[in-house]
C-alpha cells in the first residue's frame, strides 16, 4: 500500500518566516504615501506655500519690486501662523510637520526679512549693513531654537501661558522692517540713515534673543459681555485701515508694540521681582 504523502510543513514555515521578516523590515519605513490621509497633508502644503512666499519675497526684493517683496513676506508670515492652528483643528499634527514648520520659520522670519531689508536700505551701509542683516538672521534662528526646546519640556511653567522669553520671531520680522515701511512713506533713506537702520536691525536681533518678558496675549483673560461688540468693531476698523493705509498702519503698529515692551517688563517685575526671565522661574 502506498503511504500517504507527508505535508510539506518545512516549506510553509519558511514562507511564513520570510513574510514576517519582510513585514518587520517594512515596519521601520513608516507609513506609505498611499496610506497617509489627505487631512494630514493640508497643513504641510500650507507650510510649503509659506516657504515659497518667503523665497519669492527675496527674489522680488533683489529685482527692485520692494512693495511686492514686503507683501510676500507678510503673506508668508500669515500662512506660517495658520498652518499649526489648522493642523490642530484637523487633528493632523505630526513630527514631520513640526520640522517643516521650523524650516519655514527660519526662512520667513529670519532670512527673508533680513535680505529684503538689506536690498532696500542696508546695502547703503556696505559691509556693516550686511553684518547687521547676518546678526538679525542668526538671532532669529537662535530664538526659534530656544522656543522649540522650551515647547518640548514635559512640564511648563505657569508664566509661559502669559509671557514670551524675548520678542517672538513673527513679530520680530514685522518690527525689523520698519525702515522699509518708512521708506515707502517717503522718508529719505540715504547717507547716515542706512547706518541707523543697521543699528536698529541689530537692536531687533537683540530683542529676539534677550530674556525680556514679552506679554503673549495667550492668557485666559475674559472680556466683559458689554465690551464684546466694541472689541470686534475695533478689529474691523484696524483691518480696514490696514487695507487702505498699509504702510502707515504698519509703522504705527510697530511703534506701539515697541512702546508696550516696558509695560510688559513692569508687569513681570511686579509679579516676580526681576526685570528679565531668570532660570529659577522655569519651575511651575
Largest sheet: 2 strands, antiparallel
Radius of gyration using CA atoms only? 26 Å
Q: Which structural category fits the helices and strands?
A: mainly alpha
Strands of the widest sheet, in order across it, are: 1-2
Q: What percentage of the residues does DSSP assign to strands (E)?
A: under 5%
What portion of residues is helical? Answer: 55-70%
What is the CATH third-level topology name?
A: Four Helix Bundle (Hemerythrin (Met), subunit A)
- Total DSSP helices: 10
Element-by-element helix/strand order: HHHHHEHHHEHH
Summed over residues and divided by their number, the pLDDT gives a mean of: 81
Full CATH superfamily name? CDP-alcohol phosphotransferase transmembrane (TM) domain
Q: Span from first to last CA? A: 85 Å
Describe this structure in words.
With 284 residues, this protein is an all-alpha fold. The protein has a single domain (34-281), classed as CDP-alcohol phosphotransferase transmembrane (TM) domain (Four Helix Bundle (Hemerythrin (Met), subunit A)), CATH 1.20.120.1760. The protein has helices at 9-27, 38-62, 66-89, 95-120, 127-151, 169-176, 178-184, 192-209, 228-244, 246-272, and strands spanning 163-165, 213-215. A two-stranded antiparallel sheet has the order 1-2. Helix 2 packs parallel to helix 4 and helix 4 runs antiparallel to helix 5. The longest helix is centred in the C-terminal third of the chain and has 27 residues, at 246-272. The radius of gyration is 26 Å and the shape is globular. The termini are far apart.
Amino acid at each position: 500500500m502506498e503511504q500517504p504523502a507527508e505535508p510539506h510543513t518545512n516549506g510553509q514555515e519558511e514562507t511564513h518566516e520570510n513574510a514576517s521578516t519582510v513585514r518587520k523590515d517594512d515596519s521601520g519605513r513608516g507609513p506609505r504615501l498611499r496610506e497617509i490621509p489627505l487631512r494630514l497633508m493640508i497643513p504641510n502644503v500650507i507650510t510649503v506655500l509659506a516657504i515659497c512666499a518667503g523665497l519669492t519675497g527675496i527674489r522680488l526684493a533683489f529685482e527692485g519690486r520692494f512693495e511686492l517683496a514686503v507683501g510676500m513676506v507678510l503673506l508668508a508670515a500669515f500662512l506660517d501662523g495658520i498652518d499649526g492652528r489648522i493642523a490642530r483643528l484637523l487633528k493632523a499634527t505630526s513630527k514631520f510637520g513640526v520640522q517643516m514648520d521650523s524650516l519655514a520659520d527660519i526662512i520667513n522670519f529670519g532670512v527673508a526679512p533680513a535680505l529684503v531689508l538689506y536690498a532696500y536700505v542696508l546695502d547703503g551701509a556696505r559691509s556693516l549693513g550686511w553684518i547687521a542683516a547676518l546678526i538679525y538672521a542668526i538671532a532669529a534662528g537662535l530664538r526659534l531654537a530656544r522656543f522649540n526646546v522650551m515647547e518640548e519640556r514635559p512640564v511648563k511653567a505657569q508664566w509661559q501661558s502669559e509671557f514670551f522669553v524675548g520678542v517672538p520671531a513673527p513679530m520680530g520680522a514685522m518690527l525689523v522692517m520698519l525702515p522699509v515701511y518708512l521708506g515707502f512713506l517717503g522718508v529719505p533713506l540715504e547717507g547716515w540713515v542706512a547706518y541707523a537702520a543697521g543699528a536698529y536691525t541689530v537692536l531687533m536681533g537683540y530683542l529676539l534673543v534677550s530674556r525680556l518678558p514679552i506679554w503673549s496675549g495667550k492668557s485666559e483673560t475674559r472680556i466683559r459681555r458689554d465690551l464684546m461688540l466694541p472689541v470686534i468693531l475695533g478689529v474691523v476698523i484696524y483691518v480696514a485701515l490696514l487695507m487702505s493705509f498699509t504702510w502707515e498702519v504698519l509703522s504705527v503698529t510697530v511703534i506701539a508694540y515697541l512702546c508696550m515692551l516696558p509695560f510688559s517688563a513692569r508687569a513681570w517685575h511686579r509679579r516676580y521681582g526681576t526685570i528679565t526671565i531668570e532660570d529659577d522661574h522655569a519651575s511651575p
